[in-house]
Amino acid sequence: MLRVGTDADSDAYIRLIGDAWSEFPGVVFDVDAELPELRALATHFAEKGGALWLAEGAEGPLGMVATRPMREDGAWEIGRMYVAKAARGTGLAHRLLDTAEAHARGHGAERMVLWTDTRFNAAHAFYEKRGYVRQGAIRILDDLSKSLEFRYAKPARGLVVEVLDAAAAASAERRFSEILVACVAEGGAVTFLPPLAPEKSRGFWKRTSSEVAQAHRVLLGAWWEGALAGTVQLDLATPENQQHRAEVMKLLVDPAFRRRGVGEALMRRAEQAALRLGRRLLTLDTEADAEGERLYRRLGWEEGGYIPDFAVNGAGRLVAARYFYRRTG
Fold first, then answer.
1. Can you tell me the distance from the alpha carbon of 242 to that of 118, in angstroms, rounded to the nearest whole number?
2. Rounded distance, CA 23 to CA 85, Å?
3. Of 216, 232, 229, 254, nearest to 299 (Cα)?
4. Which secondary-structure segment (H or E) carries 53?
5. Mean pLDDT of all residues belonging to the chain
6. How does DSSP classify residue 89?
């Protein structure tokens, strides 16, 4: 059962957090010294304009989560997210986060933010699956555990496209790998043939993150209602006599999020990013007569060439390619 938490549930909160922290050597759990708010946690969040939930089973507390508004950017913070070991893998974590995010959006949240200990690798994977990406510097806490924390964030609502820095790119690798595998399975002309192994996809995104860190590539991500739904790249590693140009690569939209304007939003934002970087000419190639070509023509891209039998598709047939270009300014 998932319900609103109360101050009377303090023993449950202490048990959930204490059990979770005990899984990591060097993490000190001292309620009275550092976490006295656990004695009246519902009041603590209510005073901040937030809310708290507790999940219970016959065996006791199974999970908890809270959320509260922040002071800037219409952001709400997710906090106190813990799931008992026995309840992991059951979908409870998703239910808890769904509940907190829905509450925040219902109260006007435009952005979701959370902090998580750098040692909590399973938590990082979960948040990344849910569309969160790392943002900003690591936070150093002056606590008994000498904790370091990552900041994760994502847009909360609507269709939003953002440029990802190196940290965000690395944290998006899992989700982008899933999207690439799904697009290849659907017949996407993105240099890979189906079935694309997840490990091979992940390797591609690791290389992409490295190129972002070296400023050789710009990576953009698109969120739809808080889910990371698509991506596109700008290759900046052009020859020295072509530094005014960038190549658009790997426009990918999760098949589950198509027909919602995600691809168009990514392309328009990529053009803006290129213009800010002084890249006045954009180029790309795409499978001829495919969905991508129709999108580029609709956005005003001009055809620059046609090559028959350019590549092999997933069905083993040779397909043609068309080249397009667009001036950004």
1. 41
2. 10
3. 232
4. strand 51-57
5. 97
6. T
CATH number, span 2-112: 3.40.630.30
- Report in angstroms the alpha-carbon separations of 27 from 18, 82, 118: 10, 15, 12
**Which is the CATH superfamily of the domain at 159-327?**
Gcn5-related N-acetyltransferase (GNAT) (3.40.630.30)
Q: Mean per-residue pLDDT for 193-199?
A: 96
The CA distance from 150 to 131, in Å, is: 15
The predicted-structure confidence for 1-38, as pLDDT tens digits, reads as follows 999 999 999 999 999 999 999 999 999 999 999 999 99
**Could you tell me the residue ranges of all domains in the chain?**
2-112, 159-327
Residues 33/144, Cβ–Cβ less than 8 Å: yes
Scan for tokens 């890979």, then name that residue. 192
SS3 readout for 265-285: HHHHHHHHHHHHCCCCEEEEE
At 58, is the secondary structure helix, strand, or coil?
coil
d(CA 193, CA 25): 44
Instruction: Provide the pLDDT for residue 188.
Output: 84
Q: If DSSP states are collapsed to H, E and C, what string results for 155-213?
A: ECCCEEEEEECHHHHHHCHHHHHHHHHHHHHCCCCCCCCCCCCHHHHHHHHHHHHHHHH
In this chain, the answer to whether the domains covering 2-112 and 159-327 adopt an identical fold is yes
Span 113-164, pLDDT tens digits: 999 999 999 999 999 999 999 999 999 999 999 999 999 999 999 999 999 9
CA distance 271 to 261: 16
pLDDT at 294: 97
Query: Encoding tokens for residue 122?
Result: 């399973």
